[in-house]
TrEMBL record:
It comes from Fischerella thermalis JSC-11. Its cofactor is (R)-lipoate. It comes from the Bacteria. Belongs to the 2-oxoacid dehydrogenase family. InterPro entries: 2-oxoA_DH_lipoyl-BS, 2-oxoacid_DH_actylTfrase, Biotin_lipoyl, CAT-like_dom_sf, E2/Pdx1, E3-bd_dom_sf, PSBD, Single_hybrid_motif. Residues 88-114 have a biased composition (Low complexity). This is Dihydrolipoamide acetyltransferase component of pyruvate dehydrogenase complex. The keyword Glycoprotein does not apply. Residues 135-172 form the Peripheral subunit-binding (PSBD) domain. GO terms for molecular function: dihydrolipoyllysine-residue acetyltransferase activity. Residues 88-137 are annotated as: Disordered. The lineage of its organism: Bacteria, Bacillati, Cyanobacteriota, Cyanophyceae, Nostocales. Keywords: Acyltransferase, Lipoyl, Transferase.
Length: 427
């Protein structure tokens, strides 16, 4: 018999603290294995945190609406109903502020020290095997069952070692994407369908606290200041791209998908632009994942990721992007859907912005800022004047590994693709 501390989970690599949105269980309630106990607001989304074992919610330390650092105790769970009162007594004796339990007649163990006997909630994401239990997304488990693949032999590539569907497909040599009509992949922990919180109305003279997402963005921006960057701009003629867009727009293709695809294809020729700096050297990712910045209605910024954008056809890419944006707006993205970008696009062209400098995201080597496409008077090859649609792009890169010549060569090839062969993006 044991009493366990439930810790604030690390739901993303950048999360330092979380806010309790709601407790789905009340003190004294029975908790089943795999059942949602608490909804936590991370820096990017609201997520259900599920239990990996059976027990009873004995005492809540951090109430709904309050925040706690990652790794801090937020509740006590008793293995048996008889231990509920013991857990309450320990909580009162030790004090919630200490975030620890005191040994009593019934031995108390933290989720870490007791892990060899019974795992606690899905709070610590390290290996993809927790106390003998393979940690994998529901989609990965379903796929493994269908294909008769042993998950225990797979090394997960998802956040913190979680096995995702792509890992299962890689084992059997499959690279095909799930059908567009398939239900959205929902890895654990499951993201709740909590609606986006309305923006707080500004009142003159009032200080409005940052929400969790805004705080995370602020931390990332400050971290970016420590990186020496270089800005390289380029003017791209978009007449051919605009013509293609008009032809396939009715099939659900978006301009964002076209630009992301063009960038991804060009990155194939310039792996350094897709890389990032580390103290050990230059990290070359195994895939090309294009993140696209999206402003949230309640403040803050999120970057849904088009994973393997160079391998997806333009129609699948557009469907994927539509789904990502819809779920981002209601905070339903999974961690791997916003934290795995290797290159970022930031497009303010829809606001009529000509050009701007984007701030380099932590952990990436480059970000491309895209301005509006406008009709411009230009000199033609035969010495005459003509009108062409042109847009200005400006790339911010980590100057520790990417130099001006590297950035210029990438932008030159990107412009060549968009100006002379955009039709290849549909192949």
């Amino acid at each position: 018999m044991s009493i366990y501390e439930v810790f604030m989970p690390a739901l993303s690599s950048t999360m330092t603290e979380g806010k309790i949105v709601s407790w789905e269980k009340s003190p004294g309630d029975k908790v089943e294995k795999g059942e949602t106990v608490v909804v936590v607001e991370s820096d990017k989304a609201d997520m259900d945190v599920e239990s990996f074992y059976e027990g009873y919610l004995a005492h809540i330390i951090v109430q709904a609406g309050e925040t706690a650092p990652v790794g801090a105790a937020i509740a006590l769970l008793a293995e048996t109903e008889a231990e509920i009162e013991t857990a309450k007594s320990q909580a009162q004796g030790a004090g919630a502020a200490k975030q620890e339990t005191t040994a009593t007649a019934a031995p108390t163990k933290t989720a870490d020290t007791a892990a060899s006997e019974k795992p606690a909630l899905a709070t610590h994401n390290g290996s993809n095997h927790r106390s003998g239990r393979v940690v994998a997304s529901p989609r990965a488990r379903k796929l493994a069952k269908e294909l008769k693949v042993d998950l225990s032999n797979i090394s997960g590539s998802g956040p913190y070692g979680r096995i995702v569907a792509e890992d299962v497909q890689a084992v059997i040599g499959k690279t095909s994407q799930p059908p567009a009509s398939a239900a959205p992949i929902t890895p654990a922990p499951v993201v709740t369908a909590v609606a986006t919180t309305p923006a707080v109305a500004a009142v003159p003279g009032q200080v409005v606290p940052l929400n969790t997402l805004q705080s995370a963005v602020a931390r990332n921006m400050v971290a970016s200041l420590s990186v020496p960057v270089i800005h390289v701009g380029y003017t791209i003629t978009t007449d051919a791209l605009d013509k293609l867009y008009k032809q396939i727009k009715s099939k659900g293709v978006t301009m964002t998908a076209l630009l992301a695809k063009a960038v991804a294809v060009t990155l194939q020729k310039h792996p350094l632009i897709n890389a990032n700096y580390s103290d050990q050297g230059i990290v070359y990712p195994a895939s090309i994942n294009v993140a696209v910045a999206v402003a949230m209605d309640d403040g803050g910024l999120i970057t849904p990721v088009l994973q393997n954008a160079d391998q997806l056809d333009i129609y699948s890419l557009s469907r994927t992007w539509k789904s990502l944006v819809e779920r981002a707006r209601v905070k339903k993205l999974q961690p791997e859907e916003y934290s795995t970008g290797t290159f970022t696009l930031s497009n303010l062209g829809m606001f009529g912005v000509d050009r701007f400098d984007a701030i380099l995201p932590p952990g990436q080597g480059s970000i491309l800022a895209i301005g509006a496409s406008r009709p411009q008077v230009v000199a033609t090859a035969d010495g005459m004047f003509g009108i062409k649609q042109q847009m200005q792009v400006n790339m911010t890169s980590d100057h520790r590994i990417i130099y001006g010549a590297h950035a210029a060569a990438f932008l030159q090839d990107l412009a060549k693709l968009i100006e002379t062969n955009p039709q290849s993006l549909t192949m």
